User: Fold these one by one.
Assistant:
Number 1:
Amino acid sequence: MVAPPEQTQDNNDHLVQSNDPEHPANLIPALCAKFWTLGWVTGTGGGACIRQDDLVYIAPSGVQKELMKPSDMYVLSLAAQAASLDRRQRVYLRSPTQYKPSQCTPLFLAAFTKRRAGCCIHTHSHWAVLVTLLLETFGPGKDREFRINNIEQIKGFGRGFEKSGNLGYHDTLVIPVIENTAHEEDLTEFLEEAMDKYPDTYAVLVRRHGVYVWGENVHKAKTQCESLDYLFQLAVEMKQLGLPWITEIEPTVPTRK
Ligand SMILES: CSC[C@@H](O)[C@@H](O)C(=O)COP(=O)(O)O
Ligand SMILES: [Zn+2]
């Protein structure tokens, strides 16, 4: 077994220094600046995390996510983390001294380790929060899933973990909802439970809080996050217009003559 790299005296600064705009240390600040304009990472909430092979690039906690710099990024080795005896203790190769790492770290790690995701995005989007509030009004039992079908944007989603291709127009997209907790890290066990119960899901809604969305790579995570936000907004607006709530209708497959 190859020993994981250790934190060096220079804090492994080379891990976050690159001229490549696609390098995770450059991409996280760039993505978060775009997400801020969508209201996804307002007031320090939400964020994004990228895995490149064994290395995970993590934003700091409690900072204005749209103003971050590559040098603000934490770097963690999944191999070193797996070898650590205490699962809650994080093994960082690089820690910017003035901050703590994002409180969302254990949730991001769940997407990387349980689903081999390459990127995980957490938003505090109004649409995500409103959808969880609307679901509450459907009563116990019906408030634990967001379902939608017969909308073109569903095709923006992959079929599921280790499955090829995307959902089709007539498929139903199902996103589980978990309850919020006082501390972000306490959501981890519920997020993992939801992943086990819905093995093909790429997202988990957190009631009155937001959504976690992941994908095989940055492109897929971003596409799925944007598609989902579009669908959440559409669902809320359909409800406002008095159109039938999509969770209450069955998929309508037209019959061919
Ligand atoms: C507005 S505080 C939000 C946090 O508690 C949390 O929900 C969040 O999404 C961001 O946590 P952070 O530790 O700043 O990355
Ligand atoms: Zn949050």
Number 2:
Amino acid sequence: MASKVSQFMQLGRKIVAVGRNYKAHAHELGNALPSKPMLFLKPTSSYIAEGEKIRIPEGCTSLHHEVELGIVIGKPGSRISEQDAASHIGGYILALDMTARDFQEEAKKKGHPWSLAKGFDTSCPVSGFIDKDKISDPSKVRLWLKVNDSLKQDGNTGDMIFSIPHLISYISRYFRLEEGDVILTGTPEGVGPVGSGDVIEAGLSDVVTMKFQVEQS
Ligand SMILES: CC(=O)CC(=O)C(=O)O
Ligand SMILES: [Mg+2]
């Protein structure tokens, strides 16, 4: 299973992202707490790996970083129960849900979808694949992010509103989950803007770190 899911980027499977899954982050942007998981999709064309640059999309004046734990699905399924959810996890990634916040605010006001704000090219920088056994308890991992060496986000997956088993179960009621799909589980507080030339460094406990530079497109 691991060798196959490690090809998640090449497989081009879907990216299901969860929004507002940390109370403090929902509050920092003045958003109400969700009563059920809030979902959106990012296209697989948004993936980049280390060595590639995050490009500020044309017309964007407020590009924000959001560090997130990504779940890589290892076994397909629909209507997965919370009890079975762990068996569908193939591994993990560390990911950034780069967000054109100005595009998102405009879309929110007009009731439009977030596709442009969340799905532009380079909006999903990811680490390499992390084997499932490297993270004994995904509900207790530290997520941090620095911009130019200054710590901006320092959270823990223990603060998620909806647990990982609940997310897998809920999402699979609506989207059949396939091997290589990625679930981005939401970001903790501390999101903020980045500009051209900035360097973003992020880490997941002592398991992985990654670095990306930002440039104007
Ligand atoms: C307000 C957002 O952009 C939602 C989101 O992506 C999150 O991680 O929370
Ligand atoms: Mg996010």
